[in-house]
Specification:
It is a single chain. By secondary structure, the chain is an alpha/beta fold. The chain has a single domain, classed as Rossmann fold. Helix content is 40%, strand content 17%. A seven-stranded parallel β-sheet has the order 3-2-1-4-5-8-12, sandwiched between helices. Strands 9-11-13 form a three-stranded mixed β-sheet. Strand 6 and strand 7 form a beta hairpin. Helix 6 runs parallel beside helix 8. The mean pLDDT is 95. Bound molecules: nicotinamide-adenine-dinucleotide and 2'deoxy-thymidine-5'-diphospho-alpha-D-glucose. 2'deoxy-thymidine-5'-diphospho-alpha-D-glucose (DAU) binds next to helix 6 and strand 10.
Length: 378
Amino acid sequence: MNKTIIITGGAGFIGSHVVRLFVDKYPDCRIINVDKLTYAGNLANLKDVEDRPNYRFVKADICDFEAMRTLMEAERVDGIIHLAAESHVDRSIRDPFTFARTNVLGTLSLLQAAKEYWESLPEGYSGKRFYHISTDEVYGALELTHPEGIEPPFTTKASSGKHHLAYGDTFFYETTRYNPHSPYSASKASSDHFVRAFHDTYGMPVIVTNCSNNYGPYQFPEKLIPLFINNIRHRKPLPVYGKGENVRDWLYVEDHARAIDLIFHKGKDAETYNIGGFNEWKNIDIVKVLVRTADRLLGRSEDEDMGLITYVTDRKGHDMRYAIDSTKLQRELGWEPSLQFEEGIEKTVRWYLDNQEWMDMVTSGEYMKYYDGMYGKR
Ligand code: NAD
Ligand code: DAU
């Protein structure tokens, strides 16, 4: 076996796509999925790779420093791709402590364990890498703007020179000052600072990436897209926060996983890369696309379920607009999103409708037992 890589949070949404990609693409590397299996962790997301010889699952809490330190030494870990986190903004508003614990202290515990282990080796940090997955939300919120009185979205030019549709004329760059607003984004910002501090203080080879909203298969149905697809199917209300005017920049999850692979292998130490789709959408427009697509795939008449749209009280401190400029990643490493949004959404809606069993397991809580059967108690 070549290298040993820990992927934390591999039983979650993005993590499961990263684990699958690495297990398939690098049969000579040992891939260790370290996950606590919180409500968001679901080993059924990895059913297709669980028997591979280069894959191992370890149930552990990243906040458990001793367990992390022991694991790194026992497995002789060369690289860490850190995705484990509490990830849902609404939960962070209700329970910020859990976010500080996992996202801040958990990241610190992993960093310190990696530092102690790597510094104990004769080669030190040579050939090692700590890759931290962060979010665009740390940059704060952008405004919806109307340059020269034009109604957004309007065509604009990224710093790469490419044209795309946008709801404002400002973007998040790698150099944008951190300005988090929610307890979730504050905890992610704090963890990003710890990662960079470990480079600046101890010389640890680290990389941080900040990505926009992901969508695709295996996302926990508390997030907008899977929640709404499931509600349309069951003809339940679609709770749109506020006026539905907030804008997010959407990226298909497999494109994010490809970017992570590229950056883990080719990115430069101590660098930050933004990852995004140049794909801004107002929430209400996404919801309409979801209704149209789901109704068509379910054989219902056009727009039959538009009446399910229900405007509800806004999320507290709801950020208006996120928009990533990922030109640096494009220019330096040649990454680009592979899917057009229309294609990605069609694939996504189809996947959730075709995988009703997965959705039912998650919404009923049955998925928790998947682990019980395989490895003992959760
Ligand atoms: P998710 O909530 O689907 O999965 C998180 C995973 O982490 C789960 O499997 C959970 O069991 C595990 N976990 C939580 N606490 C843990 C702990 N203490 N110890 C070990 N494992 C623990 O999250 P996601 O949407 O896949 O996001 C993954 C990462 O990507 C997060 O760091 C998130 O901040 C970041 N991110 C997400 C998005 C997005 O749109 N979903 C966008 C940008 C960045
Ligand atoms: O930008 C990256 C972030 O994207 C990640 O860091 C987070 O982990 C991820 O959860 C996501 O955060 P958002 O808050 O943008 O995602 P969510 O799916 O919760 O909401 C998307 C938008 O839809 C947001 O403006 C709130 C709105 N919304 C959401 C839900 C769940 C609704 O209007 N109704 C809803 O029921």
